[in-house]
């Protein structure tokens, strides 16, 4: 018999949110604005979010505690869907009205993170940099792969000017 979570008392709902792992919280947050705000108000503590940018996708690493294998989620973000890798399975979640920018903002918002902690530009083309700058206007730490950094620094001035990191 299904349980109507939103009809639970506040205390019971908070307990239910505490029992959810990160993957469940993300899924719950996508149901409605109300569930998104509930997840956000749960103030779940996670390690700072890291993002790895490739030409065709962006991979987020979200971890909750020291047990990397148990609580780590790898999110591959595409325009209107994400792939979640973890628990030895891959799930695909679709939200047709979401763009890549919406997914990034959603993850930062539900975990109360103002910006990405670590952004790594691993493998991408120079024209894609403008998109990266729009998707990640701020970050705390920026890493650029060796292969890409030589080409990048030839055509651009100092990194802090471009990324405001």
UniProtKB/TrEMBL annotation:
Q: Which residues form the F-box domain?
A: 8-46
Q: Which InterPro entries match?
A: F-box_dom (IPR001810), Zygotic_Embryogenesis-Asso (IPR053222)
Query: Superkingdom, according to UniProt?
Result: Eukaryota
Report what the protein is called.
F-box domain-containing protein
Source species taxonomy: Eukaryota, Metazoa, Ecdysozoa, Nematoda, Chromadorea
Encoding gene (name): Cnig_chr_V.g21611
């Amino acid at each position: 018999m299904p349980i109507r979570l939103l009809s639970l008392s506040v205390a019971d709902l908070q307990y239910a949110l505490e029992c959810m792992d990160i993957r469940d919280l993300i899924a719950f947050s996508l149901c409605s604005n109300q569930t998104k705000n509930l997840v956000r108000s749960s103030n779940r503590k996670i390690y700072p979010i890291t993002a790895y940018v490739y030409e065709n996708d962006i991979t987020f690493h979200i971890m909750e505690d020291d047990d990397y294998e148990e609580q780590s989620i790898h999110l591959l973000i595409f325009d209107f869907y994400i792939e979640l890798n973890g628990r030895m399975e891959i799930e695909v979640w679709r939200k047709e009205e979401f763009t890549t920018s919406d997914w990034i903002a959603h993850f930062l918002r539900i975990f109360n993170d103002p910006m990405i902690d670590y952004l790594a530009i691993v493998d991408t083309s120079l024209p894609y940099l403008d998109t990266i700058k729009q998707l990640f206007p701020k970050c705390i730490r920026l890493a650029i792969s060796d292969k890409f950094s030589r080409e990048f620094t030839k055509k651009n001035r100092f990194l802090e000017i471009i990324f405001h990191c």
